[in-house]
Design brief:
InterPro entries: CheY-like_superfamily (IPR011006), OmpR/PhoB-type_DNA-bd (IPR001867), Sig_transdc_resp-reg_receiver (IPR001789), WalR-like (IPR039420), WH-like_DNA-bd_sf (IPR036388)
Radius of gyration: 21 Å
CATH superfamily of the largest domain: Response regulator
Distance between the termini: 36 Å
Pfam family, one: Response_reg
CATH topology of the largest domain: Rossmann fold
Number of helices: 8
Number of strands: 12
GO cellular component, one term: protein-DNA complex
Structural class: alpha/beta
Protein name: Stage 0 sporulation protein A homolog
Strand content: 15-25%
GO biological process, one term: regulation of DNA-templated transcription
Strand order of the largest sheet: 2-1-3-4-5
């Protein structure tokens, strides 16, 4: 079942879209907190986003750009704006289609179905990111995002941060981390783990995430 995230601040329009897409077997979620769309995006793991342009706080162009940092999933703009400049901007900034309001639900469903078929016929492009507070980790690209900054991690640094993110605020033992880093190609000892954690710390510090990894002496680490 395909999941569709609806980013539309008009409650009536949002409800109509949800009702109709559910009839066609789609799973939907309507964003309610427009101050930060990303938590809903990450938690719901949609296959497509339907994006209004005129939104509170930040417009749809902004949220499209943020989503494009993590995913290439289809984004369809739905807006009452009818100028060519808005349509061109929507497509050039990462949108896959542009539908004007008022629109026909039958046409919207047909377009959405066609785009989803094209996007997912050969490959599953589900979301592959983790978030803790305002830190976002792209697991596929080994990239960490915080605010408007980003940094790339090594394979081992990414594994360490992944395990910490999947256990937020909890102690992750050094033994467990070393087992997670172990693979067929390399041996990870206690000193190697320390070096990798320190490198990861420095990269997070440079992003503005100073002190985000706490050492529990003799035991392991946890995210603050």
């Amino acid at each position: 079942m395909y999941r569709i995230l609806i980013v539309e601040d008009d409650g009536k329009i949002s409800s109509i879209m949800e009702e109709n897409f559910k009839k066609w077997g789609y799973e939907t979620k309507a964003v309610e907190d427009f101050s930060d769309v990303l938590p809903d995006f990450i938690a719901f793991e949609p296959h497509m986003v339907l994006m209004d342009i005129n939104l509170p706080n930040y417009d749809g162009f902004y949220w499209c750009a943020r989503i494009r940092e993590f995913s290439h999933l289809p984004i369809v703009f739905i807006s009452s704006r009818d100028t060519d400049s808005d349509k061109i901007r929507a497509i050039t900034q990462g949108g896959d289609d542009y539908i004007e309001k008022p629109f026909s639900m039958d046409l919207l469903i047909a377009k959405v179905s066609a785009i989803l078929r094209r996007a997912y016929s050969y490959v599953d492009q589900t979301l592959n990111i983790l978030q803790y507070k305002d830190m976002v980790l792209n697991l596929e690209r080994h990239q960490v995002f915080y605010g408007d900054k980003e940094t790339e991690l090594t394979k081992n640094e990414c594994k360490i941060l992944t395990l910490l993110l999947r256990n937020p605020g909890k102690l992750v033992s050094r033994t467990r981390l070393m087992k997670d880093l172990w693979d067929d190609e390399s041996f990870v000892d206690d000193n190697t783990l320390t070096v990798n954690v320190n490198r990861l710390r420095r990269k997070l510090d440079e992003l503005g995430l100073e002190g985000s990894i706490k050492t529990i002496k003799g035991e392991g680490y946890r995210l603050l």
